[in-house]
Design a protein that fits this description.
Blueprint lengths: L2 H6 L3 H6 L2 H21 L5 H10 L4 H11 L2 H10 L15 H37 L4 E6 L2 E7 H26 L16 H11 L14 H28 L6 E2 L19 H15 L1 H6 L10 H30 L1 E2 L1 H9 L7 H10 L4 H18 L3 H6 L2 H6 L2 H7 L9 H6 L4
Antiparallel strand pairs: 1-2, 3-4
Amino acid sequence: MGCAVWERYSYPEMRELWSLESKFKAWMEVELAICDAWAELGVIPKEAVQKIRERASFTVERVLELEREFEHDLLAFVRAMTENMGEEGRYVHMGVTSYDVEDTALGLILKRSCEILERDLDEAMDAVRQRAVEHKHTLMMGRTHGVHAEPITFGLKLLVWLSELERHKERLLAVKERVAAGKISGAVGTYATVDPRVEEIVLRNLGLNRPKVSTQILQRDRHAEYLCVLALIAASIEQFATEIRNLQRTEIAEVEEPFRAGQRGSSAMPHKRNPIRSERLCGLARLVRSMVIPALENIPTWHERDLTNSSVERVILPDASILTDYILRQFAAIVRGLVVKPENMRANLEKTQGVVFSQRVMLALVKKGWSREDAYKLVQQCAFEAIQQGRPFRSILESRPEIRETLSPSELDELFDYGYFIRHVDEIFRRFGL
């Protein structure tokens, strides 16, 4: 993506984490850790490592200049890093191969990316949790297939979102353990030119996990899983944003995205208040999902490594991470500022003339001795009549002699009680500690 796009759809911390400068800093962090490990094993003089640390430096411009000459980014970086070192520079990158540095540095960046996304998920969950408690008993219509079903509460709807986000937090923590890994095992993973203890020391000092075995690279199932988790997060946010969009439709009008003073909804129609933020999240979620296939296709490599994964990862890992960070933070802001309209929710409950009580009436007839088939047919006829004629469902029921003979007015009063549908809501909230 172009810089202008990222400035619009990104936040600085994640964007900077995936910048070229950040990548090169991570490379230098790994190269210095390797030198430290060799010194700990007595292979490199400790005084030399001290000088290496004092003199190690680079500029992005110089690395790119050298890369144009070498056509090898890691070699260009090592040259740039060691240009001002003197003879101690010979110890840098000793015994290791490019992806010992690059994959280990990537493990550092992915670990830090996961930590940012953890905070994002916490922020989103906190926003949803607060609004769920606020609307714990705010009655609204539950819909299946887009059609009125039975009443729920808006708080219960939000709890479903919260539960989904909690599962994503678990997935993210699990995948962080797998991507927060590195390898310092040489050209084909045999440690032929580097002591295995170097890998142990480097990864311990960097706070990364050590694989049992590797080739020249870490195997790409780790990175594919990371992309899959991000795609799942984005897909859930799209689900929530789609629900907001639907509930904001004029015909429903039960919630509304925050709309700032001075904001415009349309260039032609001054009355418009469009759910543009939620629509944007739905669109960006599609981009994140689209990166899963190339991530999965990166898993097959020729023998101990090839370069097919490298160019792809330079796009999909930063893009998916930056987009998911943006999506989560924008979603949290939408939820915090969401305008909820309980009066419209109540009005929508009444639109279908009380047919939402049809299941309760049917079950009451069955309890009175009716067959389920007979009860279903009669209640369905009365419900359809209520909807088609715009008459109250209860009055149609009361016009039927067989109903009057079976159910008393007081029993119908009890059946037509919205509170019945939400009597277990408190119990569900307690499962969340709320």
